[in-house]
Amino acid sequence: MPCGVPELAIKLATAIGLTAVMYINSMSVSWTARLQIFLTFVKLLAMVIIIVPGLYQLIREDTDRCNHAAVYLPTSHTPLSFSMFVKKKRRTRSIIEDARTLKSHHTPATFAEKIYGNISVAVPIFVALSCFGSMNGSIFAISRMFYVASREGQLPDVLSMVHVRRHTPVAAVIIMYPLTMLLLFVGDIYSLLNFMSFLRWLFIGLAVVGLIYMRHTRPEMARPFKVPIFIPAVFSFTCFFMVFLSLYSDPVNTGIGFAIMLTGIPAYYIFIVFDRKPKWFQKLSDSVNRSLQILLEVVPAEN
């Protein structure tokens, strides 16, 4: 029997990937964008590799294992990715026996072993690259969120500054690194995933509800593009459904995450709304911003 991968090895691999993504996002916006395009192509290529043999099996009428495939279909956040994942899951289950599917911790790898034999090692590599792409996209998006929040005065000023030569929001990118590493090595990975997915989908769902609200209250507002209202409605319902699943599957970690989220309310009123801050606090904040600005070689974006 093959032995399992040690948890420390998984965490170290995650730390290496996270460090690489942070470095790329700090060095160049164009590198980040090109890497994301390449990794998205790799992800879709991996799905095609799985879907095509599955279609061949369906043509041969080997469809008896698709009877309950809907139970295993995931929910994604765009029509393209949703359709690709649905096709992948159906084609995979049309080839792998039910017993092997239930016992396997990595269905694509089991599928590849059955179809491609010795070259099946490529599928886990594709999966790893897909995870790397998800991490790259998340850091790119979250760092820009910090950047905008700082520009609006809701976070320290240094987070809205860009590097003098590379024009990347270095501070907004690396601010996540120490805390992410701490959570990675101190906490349990799967509890952390559950905790983060709850907060992520809750806020995404609330943001989309805000979009629906603005469509009704301010229909005359100029918008770069518009989609039918049922699309954000279905998407927000999906987000809240995933939040409910997190509450149902792991109420303890989800409750802790919700409690930590609520601490942001008093922090917002103390540090943002309340203007009469002590002079020592202002001096400390200015000193930290100035020191980080010199250390990271960043300047306000308008300069």
TrEMBL record:
GO CC, alphabetical: membrane
Subcellular location field: Membrane
Entry's Gene Ontology molecular function annotations: L-amino acid transmembrane transporter activity
Membrane topology reported for the UniProt record: Multi-pass membrane protein
Sections of the chain in a coiled coil: none
The keyword Transmembrane is annotated on this UniProt entry: yes
Main location: membrane
Superkingdom of the source species: Eukaryota
Keywords assigned by UniProt, alphabetized: Membrane, Transmembrane, Transmembrane helix
Lyase recorded as keyword: no
Sequence intervals crossing the membrane: 6-25, 37-59, 125-149, 170-192, 198-215, 227-248, 254-274
Protein name in UniProt: Cystine/glutamate transporter
